[in-house]
Amino acid sequence: MENKDSLFTVEGMTDEELFARVDHNSLDSEKITAPRYSYWRSVFRVFFKKKINLVFLGILAFVILFAYIYPTVVEYDKFGNLMDSTAKHLKPMAAMKKFGYNIHWILGAGAAGQSTFDAIWNGSRISISLAFICAAINMTIGVLVGAIWGFSKKIDMFMMEVYNIVGNVPSILLISVLVLILSPSFWSMVFALTITGWLFIAYFIRTQVIIIRDREYNLASRCLGTPITRIATKNILPFMTSVIVTLLAVEIPSYISYEVFLAYIGMGMSDMSLGRLIYEAESAMVTPGWQFEFWSPVVIASIITVALYVTGQNLGDASDPRTHM
Amino acid sequence: MGKYVLRRLFHGLISAFVVVAIVMIMIYTLLDKQLIFAADNVYKNYGNNEKVAYQYRKWEEYGYLDYLTYTDYLSLLVEKGEIDEETKTSVASIGKKPENDKKETAEYVEKFNEYCAANNYTVVRLNAIMVSPKKYANGGAQQLFAYKALPITHRLVSYVTGLIKVDNIHYVEKNTGDVLENPGITFTLHDPIYGGEKFAPAIIGNGTKHKYLLYFDGKFPFIHQNLVTLNLGQSYAVNQGVDVFETMTKPQGSYVMTTTTFPTGLTEESADDLHSAVYVSGSMLANKVNSDRFTDDYTSVTTVKAGKSKMGYSFSIGIISVLLMYLIGIPLGILMSRHKDKFVDKLGTAYIMFITAVPSLAYIFLFKAIGGKLGFPTTFDIESTSKMIYVLPIVSLALRPIADTMKWLRRYMIDQMNSDYVKFARSGGLTESEIFRKHILKNASIPIVHGIPAGVLGALVGAIITERVYVVPGAGNLLTIAINQYDNGVIVGVVLFYAILSVVSIIAGDVLISLVDPRINYSGKAR
After folding, report:
1. What is the pTM of this model?
2. Contact A168 B503 (CB under 8 A)
3. What ipTM is given for this predicted complex?
């Protein structure tokens, strides 16, 4: 009997308070007393709970801000030291001894006597811009088309054929031909990367839409007469948020990597992007003592892509409502 | 099932040809046709009018246009019987300028112009370029010819119809006009190349393009044929005049000399592969070397080389890295899912993240540097007999697929771990390792099995960066080299090859999972 008694005792409250009679109130009984839930607040709560995310977000913010601010503040002239034969291929220490101890020379000097550090940040700005612009265009078109593709069976038949055919055209060929016809500039690169790039994203989204489309809650929604646009925007889009964020986390760094790859095989753009820097420093790679010129842009490119990838992946995890418990 | 696969295959082939059509339109109509001469040394050495004429000749050879010279036109008239040989020679030489033409010649030039206008040809007449009244400038002789651009459909049709060639006994007569004494096919049980004593069946043709249509030798797969040849497209810059498929499959490296007995009985140390003999009109009597060796005009032979072909190198590196991918990726994936959120899992995730996020170029160079420090050779040498040269390319190539296999297997296994059948098995008292081995792995491996054909066939294609970094003479770089040198024939051929491989590998993957998983059925009406 003692056990049963302790079951009904609550600390700090007397029995009279606990068992007081409450009148019926029809207004109060309509209220749902679940804790207040805001989707985006929960996303960021989960995201910032992991301390590692703060570190990577910090690195990412620093890198991006530095890449955009530093080149506007510092004048960079690739051929400034071209005539000075003693300024070429210098290791950091030698470069600093020659030009003075400042931030420009902490990564040494390149083949034309230019500061590697300045060249890298100029290149990073171009590469990051390319990645963000391409990702924005491809994701927007890809998600919109993918949503329609997933919903309509007629469009699905047609688009599958398009996908089978365009997917088989080697992207290197497409990009190099387009860049050759247009000119190896930044915007023709954007055009070449986006002209078919959205198709692969659309295909991915289509598969996700098809998986969710026929779930029971959507069936119920349709039975209740909800219009298809409302199902798409209210029922399916929230479900897709984490998928889209995760996809974005893979996409953005992949454009930087792809640009590096294209430049390395000699099909990149003429702007001095990170890939182009790596391509031009490749010959320095095999010369003992010059490897620094090659590794510096490679390491910076890797840091940028890793920071983007990790932040994006964890944001994607956090935007999945199942992790909000 | 068979019907379904055939239908898919047919469908896939059509889309492969649509891909080829798109690529053809892209490179033949969008790109400047002048670009194909970028890497041509003969073109560079020609000057003035001859250069222009050479351009048009090459454009005709590579299918851009139909090229008709004034001399061709006169020969056409002779064939029709409108003029005789004598008139032809008398009117064949045109003047340095149109006004210098002889009266009779001018008449025929006028006829030529009319003929061209009637058949939509554009006439080009280049006046002679002189450095002095008597002396022509380099390549400055006068030229008269006409051309007609060929539509892309014409090119596509002739490409597709010429894709597979079957050798026949009328080949020589049709292509060279030579009349052979007794064209036909003979079957012998004792191949004359081996001295006529050894038992080695062979089918020998006379009047065919290849002398040996079917033969046996000591090399894998021991039986070889020359009856059916694949023409993916002729190369211009990469490997002039040679078919893409041959470029990919021809052995490379140094010659292998063996004691060879030629048809005349001459015995010599030679690298010639007599089984590859091809007919070349009038070649036996053309020089002493050939007349000493051969008894007929089948004199053009390839040579035996020590190295593998481009595709051979790519495949031997690729297939081992595919094996590594499954041998390492699958156990690690299982380990990660069994110890989810433990140290092993976190370490594996860090590796996957590193490989996925870092540009492939960066980690390949990183592993090259590490491997170089450990003493592995970092540049590929065909002549080397050491197997160590394969280590670094294989490792570099396997890094990414291992990470992908780990990632996906872990994902699939964790998804399966929450299913009802696993809970049921556990409540039935099965041990954890039994559940993993017998139940979860079997279900989770189905999507992995789907990728096996793509992995194996993909090994044929080669890898671009890995082969470039380690200087492997493989097939992976063929497309990029062709693009850089504007070798359109190679581009089209390689694209068709890639497209067919990808179509076949997807279908083979679908068939394979239906064999592994009895629930998947393509022929049932339920689909």
Report:
1. 0.83
2. yes
3. 0.80
